[in-house]
Amino acid sequence: MPWSRNDMAARAARELQDGFYVNLGIGIPTLVANYIPAGITVTLQSENGMLGIGPFPYAGEEDADLINAGKQTISELPWSAYFDSAASFAMIRGGKIDLTVLGAMEVAENGDIANWMIPGKMIKGMGGAMDLVAGVKKIIVVMEHCAKDGSPKFIPACTQPLTGRNVVDMVITDLALFQRADHSAPFRLVECAPGVTADEIRAKTTAHFVE
């Protein structure tokens, strides 16, 4: 059966390494914080100005002044640090963040990503995705394999406005995990969700990939 949102987040969390500084995007990526493997230390960074993010608070313990970039209430740790947007984006643009997990509307077979706007719909803000895909060392995308109308989201070329070109290293969907060795290599199907076949994935994917 296809992976759930939590399953996808848990699979992405397996890519974390001890000592990593990690940025989590809005949506499914925020769930990665719940699945950090035991025995490793990971420092979460939020582009709205926080380094060292604690777990989501229990009901009734929320602090409206403590939010992540997705406006969700979070908690602090004894070693949490706060700073302005200039310092936050200096970390991102300066290559200090090891890995980011992002959502997307579309990913192309060459690693392009579109995730910041849909033409004709209201835009609340660009966010930090463009800086993240340009400055972070490893980019993982977590998204549903198909859109609500059934159309593929892993496709030959993005049709939505691009966030970045040739930047995605790994794609995790509810059906499969694709990875490439470097930015000149094609994506390879390396893992299928339980009960999902390679034939089913090929039928629901228009992007070129290898097995």
Please, could you describe this protein's structure?
- This protein is an alpha/beta fold.
- The chain has one domain: Glutaconate Coenzyme A-transferase.
- Helices cover 15% and strands 22% of the residues.
- The strands form two sheets. The chain has a nine-stranded mixed beta sheet, sandwiched between helices.
- A hairpin with a 4-residue loop joins strand 6 and strand 7.
- The chain is globular.
- It starts with a helix and ends in an 8-residue tail after the last helix.
- The model has no long low-confidence stretch (mean pLDDT 93).
Notable characteristics:
single chain; 211 residues; alpha/beta; nine-stranded mixed beta sheet; three-stranded mixed beta sheet
Measured distance between first and last alpha carbons: 20 Å
Helical percentage: 10-25%
CATH structural fold name: Glutaconate Coenzyme A-transferase
Q: Strand arrangement, largest sheet?
A: 4-3-2-1-5-8-10-11-12
List the helices and strands and how they pair.
Layout: H1 5-13, E1 21-24, E2 43-46, E3 50-53, E4 76-82, H2 85-93, E5 99-102, E6 106-108, E7 113-114, H3 129-135, E8 138-142, E9 154-155, E10 170-172, E11 176-179, E12 188-192, H4 198-203
Parallel strand pairs: 1-2, 1-5, 5-8, 6-9, 8-10
Antiparallel strand pairs: 2-3, 3-4, 6-7, 10-11, 11-12
